[in-house]
# Entry
Amino acid sequence: MSDWEWNKFVKATQKRQPVGFLVEAVKILGTSKGRSLDLGCGAGVDAKYLAENGFQVEAVDLDEASINQAKKLCNSLPVAVIKEDVADYNIAPDNYQLIIAWNSLPFLNKKKSSKLLLKIQEGLTKDGIFVFSVFGPEDDWAKTRQEMSFWTIEELKNLLKKMDFIEISEEKRKKAGATGEVKFWHIIQGIARR
# Structure
């Protein structure tokens, strides 16, 4: 996406509710709260939710508009907003109770996305939870955006062998995205536990 499209996306998503799968994951963890990581934090809505629910949060994004909005939204909360490419972010092993990568992995090529998914798996503590959203191979963008990554459920499960997929959903339909662009979406989302 161009800078203009990212700015439009950040503006369109800054008032959204926290991701439903994230809310569910926090309930699953119960009182087991500690460190969390939001990879591709966008406007900071999910990072704010995590902080308000007892987590120490690292919120990572490369986009300047996202960083500025996340800092504003998470002001005075235990959220470290970090400007860095999610693909290069140092994820320490066995460090996080929860990691969310919501619609950020598709914007990495398949090789980088695979490496990051493996780092996420290793970065979770025992029983740590991963909340994710990726795009599937039938998505309209799969035809035109070779620099992105597209996954099947089987590919995800084969890569993340240490993970138990608690919940997984797949949606295929034409609809408008956050910025109003109408296209055919193939979205795979869910919760996995290490």
